[in-house]
Amino acid sequence: CKFCNLPVNGFNYTLEDIYEIIDFYLHRGGFRHILIGGGSESIVRENETVLKIVKYIRHKTDMPIYLMCLPIKDKAKLQELYYAGVTEIGFNIEIWDDEIAKKIMPGKGNISRNEYLTALKKAKEVWKEPYAVRSLLIIGLETETNLKNAVEALLSENIMPILSVFRPLPNTQMADFLPPTN
Questions:
Q1: pTM reported for the whole predicted model
Q2: Which of 68, 85, 95, 104 is deepest in the core (most CB within 10 A)?
Q3: Phi, psi at residue 138, to the nearest 5°?
Q4: DSSP one-letter string for the chain
Q5: Residue-wise pLDDT tens for the chain (182 aa)?
Q6: 64, 88 in Cβ contact below 8 A?
Q7: Cα(first)–Cα(last) distance of the chain, in Å?
Q8: Contact 159/136 with Cβ under 8 angstroms?
Q9: Helix 113-126 vs helix 75-84: angle between axes, to the nearest 10 degrees?
Q10: Residue 91: count of CB within 10 angstroms of its CB
Q11: Smallest Cα–Cα separation from 36: which of 48, 53, 20, 55?
Q12: Contact by Cβ (8 Å): 78, 108
């Protein structure tokens, strides 16, 4: 994404590397939940990897696990994640307008908003707890009307919108863009 400053280092972490980090931080403690982020592998491999990580974490702790990843439309895969121990799930739309999304998020923007909504609705069938299914929207990269429509669409399905104000990050293609005022 043009607003993202995550480094692409090309290093492949093994499951053993990830397990070591989990063990280290679980031993240290001091946090309320565990966030698993996706989007680093193909969607098929990502589901398999995330499931292994969730099972490993659940074997070690009953701490809440929040999965934030690309939209999963297969209800069976969603159920598998739920029963493995994922307590909350988010598919972050970020930009509501498909055309703006394609320009600002050239990879992720190719997933239509309709695909996101379909996946979010299926997730809502699995995670029935209030606020367990959510989607982040970025304020300031499209019109207020688009943002309002996005919030209303999510709320109409009992999906929690998370609003995040755009703040340009250094070393990104959008570093010189002006953020919206408070």
A1: 0.90
A2: 95
A3: -95, 125
A4: -TT-------PPPPHHHHHHHHHHHHHH---S-EEEE--SS-HHHHHHHHHHHHHHHHHH----EEEE-S----HHHHHHHHHHT--EEE---B--SHHHHHHHSTTGGGS-HHHHHHHHHHHHHH--STTSEEEEEEETSS-HHHHHHHHHHHHHTT-EEEEEE--PPTTSTTTTSPPPP-
A5: 888 877 666 677 899 999 999 999 999 988 899 999 876 666 667 888 999 999 999 999 999 999 999 999 999 999 999 999 999 999 999 999 999 999 999 888 999 999 999 999 999 999 999 999 999 999 999 999 999 999 999 999 999 999 999 999 998 899 999 888 87
A6: yes
A7: 23
A8: no
A9: 50
A10: 26
A11: 53
A12: no
Planar angle of CA 82, 101, 125, nearest 5 degrees? 20
Q: Which residue has the tokens 């592998």?
A: 41
Place of tokens 């696990």: 65
For residue 135, list its beta bridge partners: 161
